[in-house]
Amino acid sequence: MSRNTFKGRSLTVINDFSYDEKMYLFQKARELKQYLKEENHEKIDEFRINDPDFGIYEVFIEDSTRTKESFKNAAEFHRVKLSNLDTTHSSINKQESFADTFNTLTGYDNSIFIVRSRQEGLCRWLEENGRNYAMRNELKNPPAFINAGDGKHEHPTQELLDDFTFLEHNDWNADSIHIALAGDLFHGRTVHSKADGLKIFKKVKVDLIAPQELAMPDYYLDKMKKNGFEVNTFSSIQEYIDNGNMAKIWYFTRPQLERMGDAVLKKQDILRDKITFKKEFIDKIPEGTIFYHPLPRHKVFPSIPTFLDSTPLNGWERQSINGKIIRIILLGLIAGKIGDDFTGEVKVRQHTEDDVSFIQELPVHNNTPIKDCSEGVKPIDNGLVIDHIFRGRTEFEIREQMARIIKTLKLYGKGGEWVTSSRAEPGMMKGIIFRPNHGELGTKNMKRLASLAPGCTVNIIENKHVEKKYRLSMPQKIYNFSDIECSNTDCISNHEQGENIPSEFYKISENKFICKYCEKVHTFMEIWK
Ligand code: CP
Fold it and tell me: Could you tell me the pTM of the whole model?
């Protein structure tokens, strides 16, 4: 019998499931919806986990109605053991770490955790932590974590139900979608999940409607473009309507007042006005337009006014109803109840592999002894010379980074370091560290050095000759340093969260790195504390 590839999986971001896996989930949701409509109890029962010992825990550290209650109702459908941590009265408020909290609940025979938090990347961390806890305590399986919304990062289960609703709207045709996303695109996690979520459609056209203060962050905008979406931006609904080429699917989001800083909050009335649908717009939008909204709506300032509730524009109620079906299927998949017949691509996370491709051995010409240096420092007879450190940066940056290299690699003892201009490019400054009689750096330290000074060369000198020479390039992963940190204070790995989680970054382009947990983009220099 084939292993159920969904069983025990976490869903931390929408991209944790492949295209095939998402389509399979939607197909199962569609089937269940039909059986429920037909009241076909025999078929409906085939979807149930039906195990009173199977533990599902809801841990909502931020408020919720739809996500929490639809998961609760989905768990009740499955006839499992459902628990809810009262986070207003838990030891989280006594400064207990998330690791200790979730380890405790895992130890009480719970298999799936549904987690909402202000802290971004929490589920990603809990997944790792849970694996270690399960191993230490010889549990049969590590727990799975479902991200029910983490700060302004992602809301993958909302994305699943949104995409299911769009497919339903399109009569299950996944060829193309033209959608307008209007609202707080900066702080709204549901629209961030769309950068990968909408990939279920072959051709995607996205119109982003938000004033500059609430605009889609570059990371998600770039991701949309990289995913082949056609993206157009507008600063207000008025501007969008004036452009004339409108989508028939509009997706609104609420201004996320609780996540805005004071500067943006002060302008909330002006900003809200730009992303609120008004009565006078009704005659100007295309025939057959449907509005969607993840909800909640603000009762005083709804971006979709309530007078539209009983008009054909209302798609958000069907969307909300779909939440329960989608979450029933998701729980069934992760519990291993559904999914045995899945045959498609299984999503494997990238960036997890470590390799040594950042070390390139260069040819050496041993017949010429190395020359005296013009700066007056005698070359060493034997030992280690690290050259081209931070070439092209300022003298201050070079000195700062050399100090970091010495500290990190513990290059204490005899020798020296200096800043000089490159022989080949006289305007370019670079740093050099030399250590007489120092042996080769091991792979671990070479990796550290590659992360600290990409582009540098490492020279092993023997009898005044360069015996070996390596050029180091930036590794795909930067981790294991005490002085790197994600600069997002809402990230679970930021020191302000007090969780003591080491930061880790993945290279996404030449000078761009994302935090493993919250996916905030950093330049190389922004990584270092
Ligand atoms: N859509 C959504 O996440 O709603 P809740 O905040 O009520 O869960």
Answer: 0.91
